[in-house]
């Protein structure tokens, strides 16, 4: 996942310091709200501070680690601040190998998936952010992958192409030379991965540190909703950044949304993958709100907002929908599939859902923690309408206990 307008957004956002104090409850904040929107908080779970991915397409890592940091708060554990760059380093090594082994048929890029972080934690562990900070190799506190990508991407592409016609060289231990060279690039631009470190007075390596948190990667479930695949079975989500070919459980959208609401209502955060290129992802002075207005006619209800809506022309509806709450569209399984097939719904961005709110019309919204620093009208927090989430979600990761028992039974999850 990587946001299409990342570089434009990055210019607007400010850095947040590592190990900052926990964010105050959103209900206690008084942000400068976008004109026409008034939100009432329904439910809000604890999260760690908003971070800034800056000039790097690594939202998949920021969102998943932010999700696990929120999970630890839910479990009553202390606040953690995990290193994104450690996970990125390990994931880049694995993705480069997959690209070479498939002769370049698997793409090598900055994007990724929630499953990359889960795999990395399970196999490589975790590191505190203070041990491997973003931007440390170029004297900054934020990542900038501009030069790094122009060096690293062609290098991996060249290795993948060479293996089609020539035998790749190895050292005396039979390690491919390109792997050694890749580690040199990663060390130079991201930093060396620590083998041992001290955290709060105790010595750890990455695996023992991950174990000490109490997180169990086998407790987490990837779910999706796409009608071209069998319901209640696992399938591979067909997007380029799912290069590990990770699987998700497939549910009809009504049951998928049932899980999302059940999770938040029962204090479980959600790792959320979505398309944020829609017009309903409001920008400019409305930044911080995501809506899916229903631009078609509603049944007439005299004296209601719906009656007012019906009295507007299509052009006026479109204009009003960008400035104030309006009736939201109902989305079916076929609507979602059509958008996916037409490449209108793509693998854009990863975030964390941690609560719910409603606007003055009664439309329900999910509270979303983004990774663009202080961007938007709500200091890095977005309000995504339930209709928008229903339409533009690619997949989610939740704790298995965040799934209602009847749906766990349908999916065969114990």
Summarize the helices and strands and which ones pair or pack.
Layout: H1 6-10, E1 40-44, H2 59-74, H3 84-101, H4 114-124, H5 146-165, H6 177-189, E2 197-199, E3 202-204, H7 206-213, E4 220-224, E5 234-236, E6 247-250, H8 253-265, E7 270-274, E8 289-290, H9 305-310, H10 314-321, H11 333-341, E9 349-358, E10 364-369, E11 381-385, H12 386-392, E12 393-399, H13 405-411
Parallel strand pairs: 4-6, 8-11
Antiparallel strand pairs: 1-9, 2-3, 4-12, 5-6, 7-9, 7-12, 9-10, 10-11
Helix pairs in contact: 2-4, 3-4, 3-5, 3-6, 5-6
Total separate domains: 1
Report the sheet with the most strands, covering strand number, pairing sense and barrel closure: 10 strands, mixed
Distance between the termini: 29 Å
CATH homologous superfamily annotation = Cysteine proteinases
The gross shape turns out to be globular
Give me the number of helical elements. 13
3D architecture notes:
- With 414 residues, the chain is an alpha+beta fold.
- It has a single domain (6-292, 328-411), classed as Alpha-Beta Complex (Cathepsin B, Chain A).
- It is built from 13 helices and 12 strands.
- Strands 1, 4, 5, 6, 7, 8, 9, 10, 11 and 12 form a 10-stranded mixed β-sheet that branches. A two-stranded antiparallel sheet has the order 2-3.
- Helix 3 crosses helix 4 (114-124).
- The radius of gyration is 22 Å and the shape is globular.
């Amino acid at each position: 996942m990587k946001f299409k307008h990342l570089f434009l957004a990055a210019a607007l956002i400010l850095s947040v310091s590592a190990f900052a104090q926990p964010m105050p409850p959103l209900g206690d904040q008084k942000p400068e709200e976008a004109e026409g929107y008034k939100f009432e908080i329904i439910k809000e779970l604890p999260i760690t501070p908003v971070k800034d991915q800056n000039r790097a397409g690594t939202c998949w890592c920021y969102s998943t680690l932010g999700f696990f940091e929120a999970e630890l708060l839910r479990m009553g554990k202390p606040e953690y601040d995990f290193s994104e760059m450690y996970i990125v380093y390990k994931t880049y090594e694995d993705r480069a190998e997959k690209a070479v082994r498939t002769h370049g048929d698997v793409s090598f890029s900055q994007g990724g998936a929630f499953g990359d972080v889960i795999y990395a934690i399970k196999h490589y562990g975790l590191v505190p952010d203070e041990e491997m900070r973003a931007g440390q190799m170029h004297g900054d506190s934020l990542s900038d992958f501009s030069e790094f990508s122009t060096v690293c991407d062609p290098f991996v592409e060249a290795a993948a192409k060479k293996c089609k016609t020539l035998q790749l060289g190895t050292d005396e231990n039979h390690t491919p030379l390109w792997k050694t060279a890749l580690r040199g690039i990663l060390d130079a631009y991201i930093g060396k991965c620590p083998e041992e470190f001290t955290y709060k007075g105790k010595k750890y390596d990455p695996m023992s540190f991950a174990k000490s948190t109490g997180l169990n990667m086998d407790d987490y479930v990837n779910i999706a909703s796409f009608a071209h695949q069998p319901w209640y079975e696992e399938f591979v989500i067909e997007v380029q950044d799912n290069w590990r070919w990770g699987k998700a459980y497939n549910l009809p959208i009504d049951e998928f949304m049932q899980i999302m609401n059940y999770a938040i209502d029962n204090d479980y955060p959600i790792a959320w993958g979505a398309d944020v290129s829609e017009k309903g992802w409001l920008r400019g002075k409305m930044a911080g709100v995501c809506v899916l207005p229903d631009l078609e006619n509603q049944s007439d209800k005299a004296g209601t907002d719906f009656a007012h809506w019906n009295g507007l022309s299509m052009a006026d509806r479109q204009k009003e929908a960008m400035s104030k709450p309006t009736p939201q569209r109902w989305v079916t399984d076929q609507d979602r599939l059509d958008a996916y097939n037409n490449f209108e719904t793509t693998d854009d961005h990863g975030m964390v859902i941690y609560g719910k709110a409603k606007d003055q019309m009664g439309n329900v919204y999910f509270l979303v923690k983004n990774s663009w620093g202080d961007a938007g009208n709500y200091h890095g927090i977005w309000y995504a309408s339930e209709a928008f989430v229903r339409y533009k979600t690619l997949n989610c990761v939740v704790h298995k206990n965040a799934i209602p028992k009847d749906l766990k039974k349908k999916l065969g999850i114990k």
